[in-house]
């Protein structure tokens, strides 16, 4: 729901090898998830957008290869092992990226909100999105 609005707001920024799309998708997902993350984990990641931009393109490959690994291993174990190596390579890359960003000294800050704050934040987010969408529709 957020992606089309962000894409509309940033239409003048050129697309560089899908990097803009990846970053906008990451921001869209985190837009509504960050209050819950802060509420439950008492932490706000300052590097998640960058980490996700590097990891996100490989998630579909990891999922597909993981499925093929299981399927291939059921029918012919050596085939499963070969595919398993590809799964390992993709997931190892993802884990190393996540570990690197998590190890940075400024990777996150402690932050805590209660359920009332959560309701207020989500109310402001929904209202803001509604207003952005309304303004975007007026311009079209």
Task: Describe what is shown at a glance.
The protein is built from 6 helices and 2 strands. It is mainly alpha-helical. The longest helix has 27 residues, at 77-103.
Description:
The protein is mainly alpha-helical and 140 residues long. 77% of the residues lie in helices and 4% in strands. The chain has six helices and two strands. It has helices at 2-9, 19-41, 48-55, 59-75, 77-103, 115-139, and strands spanning 43-45, 108-110. Strands 1-2 form a two-stranded antiparallel sheet. The longest helix is centred in the middle third of the chain and has 27 residues, at 77-103. The radius of gyration is 19 Å and the shape is globular.
Number of E strands: 2
User: What helical percentage do the residues reach?
Assistant: over 70%
Gyration radius from CA atoms, angstroms: 19 Å
Query: What distance separates the N and C termini?
Result: 18 Å
- Can you tell me the overall shape? globular
Q: How would a textbook summarize the main sheet?
A: 2 strands, antiparallel
Order of helices and strands: HHEHHHEH
Residue runs with pLDDT of under 50 for 5 or more positions: none
On the 0-100 scale, what is the average pLDDT?
Answer: 88
Structural class: mainly alpha
> Please, how many helices?
6
**Percentage of residues in DSSP E strands:** under 5%
Strand order within the widest sheet? Answer: 1-2
């Amino acid at each position: 729901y957020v992606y089309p609005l962000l894409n509309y707001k940033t239409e003048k920024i050129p697309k560089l090898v899908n990097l803009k799309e990846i970053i906008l998708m990451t921001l869209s997902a985190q837009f509504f998830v960050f209050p819950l993350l802060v509420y439950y984990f008492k932490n706000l990641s300052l590097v998640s957008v960058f980490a996700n931009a590097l990891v996100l393109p490989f998630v579909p490959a990891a999922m597909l290869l993981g499925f093929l690994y299981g399927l291939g291993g059921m029918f012919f174990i050596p085939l499963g092992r070969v595919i398993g190596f590809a799964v390992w390579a993709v997931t190892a890359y993802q884990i190393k990226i996540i570990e690197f960003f998590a190890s940075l000294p400024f990777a996150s800050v402690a932050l805590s909100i209660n359920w009332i704050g959560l309701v207020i934040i989500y109310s402001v987010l929904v209202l803001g999105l509604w207003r952005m969408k309304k303004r975007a529709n007026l311009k079209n």
